[in-house]
Amino acid sequence: MPGGRRRPAPFPAFSPFARSLIFSASAAAAASSRPLPLPDDATTSAAGTPGEDNMPRPPSKRAKRPEPSIEEERGSSSESEEESFSNSGEESSQELQTVQADFAFFDPKENDFHGVRLLLKTYLDSKPWDLTGFVDLILAQTTVGTVVKLADDEEEEGEGNGGGNDDEDLFGLISVLNLGRYTEQRCIKDLKEYLLSVCSDKDTKKQLKSLLEEKASSVGLLVCRRFVNFPYELVPKLYDSLFDEVSWATEDEPTQELRDSFRFKHYLLLVRMLERKTPAKHKAKKSKDDDDEPIIYPKLEDEIFKELSSWSFTFPIRSEQSSQQEMKNYKEMGLVMAVKAEAIPKFRKKLEALVSE
């Protein structure tokens, strides 16, 4: 594994069964001749606050982020990590082929439209909404946001005729959108309406409404989606890239209004989790099903966000239930979390420690 790292230690609550599911859905990165580049943010300030005067300014992502060489398990890559747990169990029986792949971070651009749209197609479950407009907002914000592709494919696209199949080349996406800045956009209105409609608790809905309305100008909607074969070693670097760019944007954007739009006080996240359908039965002799964990997070970092969140709520979603035998006792749920910007440095440390252990 790159840099001599070992497979990350699971959270204590995870059973061996849960761990095997999560790691089978991630890329199994084998030993590499090149270590992952170290994060270049050691002296930068936390996201959401202005950086120090000596903060290094970001060159292009192409120069800033060397491509780590990863051995990728290549099966079906048309599902995000969150979707993979609720879809057909055919993947578990597929024979995976290991191939060498170089991944790199890039600014979003127009040609990424179809790949980004594919990653976000179930973001609001089955609700009809302005997904196209949402994708356009993400692609238009090039100073803060990252897409992850195969490095060689991007180079060939730049040298050739601008072609390339972005649906296949794009493996991950991360961005954050200011809810106040884009409040008049149809897609953001649809998003707010959806979140309020799925929140059933009166007190929580009051807090949610406050973030969506009065405090919207200081709230960032954090979006991170990736396919199941995305190398988990790159996840901390993906978040580092985002939060560093947020900090840089508070100084480098051309107008005061834009600079202020990245001074977030809260982050709002909409993700998915798996919840056990029925509590484990307390019997003298426990069955195999009793070892199932009450909650599984398809994206490991979401458990850290949940731990650090100011408040959160879950809601049922309409996606098809998994036919995997291992998942028969679970139902997929939506999870909304509010995380204060001041908690982000702690999140980054916890995430890095999780992958580095």
From TrEMBL:
- Annotated Basic and acidic residues bias: 65-76
Leader sequence segment: none
Q: Which domain of life is it from?
A: Eukaryota
Segments for region (Disordered): 29-96
Q: Where is the composition biased (Low complexity)?
A: 85-95
Per the record, the similarity remark reads: Belongs to the BCP1 family.
Q: What is this protein called?
A: Protein BCCIP homolog
Q: Which organism is it from?
A: Urochloa decumbens
